[in-house]
Amino acid sequence: MKFLNIEDEMKYFQKMFVLRREIEDFLFEEGYINIEPSIFEGYDEFIEINSRINKKSTVKVLDNNSEILILTPDITTGIVNKFLPRWEYGQKLKIFYYGKTYKHNGTGIKENREMGVEIIGEKNSNTDQYILSAARRIISRYSDEYLLEIGNSKFLKGIMQSCSFNKENYDNVMELLYSKNRQELKEYLSGLPFRDVMSTLLNILDLEGTFDEIMEQLDGLYLNDLMKQGIEELRQIDNEMKNTDHRVSYDLSMVSELSYYDGIILRGYIKGSNKEIIRGGRYDSFTKQYGQNIPAIGFKVELDELIKVLYKEEQK
Amino acid sequence: MSLTIAIPKGRLGTQAIQMFKAGGIGESIDEKSRKLVFKDEDINISFILLKNSDVITYIENGIADIGISGKDMIMEKGADIFELYQMNIGRCKMSVAGIKGKKVFKDDTIMRVATKFPEITKKYFDSRGQRINIIKLNGSIELAPILGLSDVIVDIVETGNTLKANGLEVFEDMYHISAMMISNRISYKFKRKEIKKIVELIRGEDEDGQDN
């Protein structure tokens, strides 16, 4: 946000400080430990992990060995890179952080403030629920008109495994799903084999709404084990969430810019805002590249977007 | 729940408004008036008339929930929106064209391409591994090869008449273009049912149009 006079800018800083502290206090009391993330990442490592990210948008810097580093576009990647190489069996981390991410946005470098939460090394039936509930408690504090949207990357991954697309096909299909472009998807797929699977892939854009609506739409579609597992996980969540909250919807075609998610994906929106306020999910398989499959789940709150919502509320 | 629909001014918009009206919404729109905002009070839907290249901007920023824009604009902007329905209007092609009968693919120089669509052009030639020089123009693209500003052009071709009249011909078709119904990503989450209703209405009109 930009301000003409210093007074308004001071009010903004004050507001941002309070907002940060409210969320930090909440997470601290919930038993999360605060860490300070680094702002540098290795360019090659980052791109390898996050192949869907727009490479041009990363902000590069050189170190004194002429290695290319980037200012972090995603803090979770940095946290995994920081802790997983030293991971000890049985370790559990419940952490939160405040940090900035950086991206070129066409006109300059965009700094983005965020607050993140991660639980690494623990997975039982409650962990997903625990994270979802933390996300809900944060977002509902700032607006009554919020929506939590939950997907499961296992579903799409299941389809993609059965299709064994090459990288180009895979990227193109993901891009079309991301923009919900039904007709072009159909046209594109008509040129490819794997008929059974296609029936589900063609209809995947209808698999959104309440859990029951999705179950109806699923009838008669191709499902493999991984896809079924994805749906079962969502059913469990739905059973729990139903009693506490109606502002939850599901989307099985959810595609994330960051490709490491492996299970539940979470988005939080507030009406009147124009970006996701909360983004996160499970990323167990991300940790595998360090030799161990450590369960991990987390989300982040987009503070810059959230504070815009607070300003809007004030004007009402 | 209120809904705001962005419509491009011009031929595409006129066609779209006809489709809305045939489907029973947009009664309030009067294209002859100079007003730019209309509202169907009874169903709480607003219509805003915009320059075609601004439709995406209004939708990306959430001022309009849904709207109609050419696929060419969406590709050029790399717009972060949902592309909900490919309409049966505004159909044309994006093509590479040049002076009729003239060989432009020389081995020793980098081809110069004049276009209104630098991003699309760059992506297309990049994917073929061909190095080019892009010359960004804002209109009368056909002039560029004639006057020697460029070797070829990349532009929208509807009938090919403009090309012909200027002694140019299509060398290669790149993409099919048509009008798309697009929506803001967050609006879609909160107003999914209302938005889908509008998309279905347009789809119905499209199909009726094809039958005739």
TrEMBL record, chain A:
Gene Ontology CC annotations of this record: cytoplasm
Chain residues that bind L-histidine: 74-76, 118, 260-261
Keywords for this protein: Glycosyltransferase, Transferase
Molecular function GO terms recorded: catalytic activity, acting on a protein; glycosyltransferase activity; histidine-tRNA ligase activity
Lineage: superkingdom: Bacteria
Domain Class II Histidinyl-tRNA synthetase (HisRS)-like catalytic core: 15-306
A biological-process GO annotation: histidyl-tRNA aminoacylation
Coiled coil: none
PANTHER family reported in the protein's UniProt record: HISTIDINE--TRNA LIGASE, MITOCHONDRIAL-RELATED (PTHR43707:SF1), HISTIDYL-TRNA SYNTHETASE (PTHR43707)
Entry protein name: ATP phosphoribosyltransferase regulatory subunit
Organism annotation: Sedimentibacter hydroxybenzoicus DSM 7310
TrEMBL record, chain B:
GO terms assigned for molecular function: ATP binding; ATP phosphoribosyltransferase activity
Primary site of residence: cytoplasm
Alphabetical list of SUPFAM superfamilies matching this protein: Periplasmic binding protein-like II
Keyword Nucleotide-binding among record annotations: yes
Superkingdom per UniProt: Bacteria
Domain ATP phosphoribosyltransferase catalytic: 51-203
GO annotation, cellular component aspect: cytoplasm
Catalytic activity, as annotated: 1-(5-phospho-beta-D-ribosyl)-ATP + diphosphate = 5-phospho-alpha-D-ribose 1-diphosphate + ATP
Keywords of this entry: Amino-acid biosynthesis, ATP-binding, Cytoplasm, Glycosyltransferase, Histidine biosynthesis, Nucleotide-binding, Transferase
Protein's UniProt keywords contain Transit peptide: no
EC assignment: 2.4.2.17
Coiled coil region boundaries: none
GO annotation terms (biological process): L-histidine biosynthetic process
Annotated compartments: Cytoplasm
Family annotation (InterPro entries): ATP_PRibTrfase_cat, ATP_PRibTrfase_CS, ATP_PRibTrfase_HisG, ATP_PRibTrfase_HisG_short
Pathway the protein takes part in: Amino-acid biosynthesis; L-histidine biosynthesis; L-histidine from 5-phospho-alpha-D-ribose 1-diphosphate: step 1/9
CDD domains attached to this UniProt entry: PBP2_HisGs
Family membership: Belongs to the ATP phosphoribosyltransferase family. Short subfamily.
Subunit structure, as described in the record: Heteromultimer composed of HisG and HisZ subunits.
Role this protein plays: Catalyzes the condensation of ATP and 5-phosphoribose 1-diphosphate to form N'-(5'-phosphoribosyl)-ATP (PR-ATP). Has a crucial role in the pathway because the rate of histidine biosynthesis seems to be controlled primarily by regulation of HisG enzymatic activity.
Domain notes: Lacks the C-terminal regulatory region which is replaced by HisZ.
Protein name: ATP phosphoribosyltransferase
Organism per entry: Sedimentibacter hydroxybenzoicus DSM 7310
